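Weekly puzzle thread! Below is a chain. First person to post its structure in token form gets bragging rights.
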Amino acid sequence: MGNQSVPCHLGGYGDWVNGRNCYFQIADPQPPAGDPRWEGHDPADGAVYDAYCPDNPNMNSAWLAQPPNGGAAVDPEVLAREAVKKMRLLGPDIASPRAAGTYTVGVPMWMWVNQSATTYGPQSASASAGAVTVTATAKVSQIVWQMGDGATVTCHGPGTVYRTSAGMTESPTCGHVYAKTSRAVPGGKYRLTATSTWAIHWEVTAGGGGQAGQFTQTQQSQMQVAIGEVQVVR
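Winning reply:
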């Protein structure tokens, strides 16, 4: 029957492989490259398995090019999502508008966020299964601002920091102009929600033939902002 496995397990140890007369279970973690247990093979070409061989008690590991049970190949996107779980992806760190700021009807508001690895990226992590390793990198691709007055503003970037030299001009990248005060809303402030879209690119960096892909994840931050109006003295 060659080196085929049969549906036989020993105490959950692994699969029996005829021809080698051993039970095999993938080693976790895998040994580093160059370890004698790789038997001279490259980690991208297979995996190291723990072995229990009744006829050869001195054999406790072996390198195999394929899973002994003919198991399904590792899904790299599943590994990518495992890598993302190792990251800390947060909602936008809103720098403007400030909760304690003073804002006025008809005056352009500039919106921007502070950038860090956890609130804007980039941030990377890896996950492995057997010989396959996937590395994922996450970075914010856009921020959608729900302004509380019914308006939604989509900004493809962190926004531009306001300088006094800009005067009353509108932000060149991310801004809004309120048309009415927040006096009539509960608490006298608009509730603003900023939702960041994390674009996550992943690629197989070992054992998978250069596969790659991407998916997204969203995170939110909220704050309140008061909008007043200029009082004209006659």
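Puzzle host: Confirmed. Bonus trivia for everyone else. The mean pLDDT is 86.
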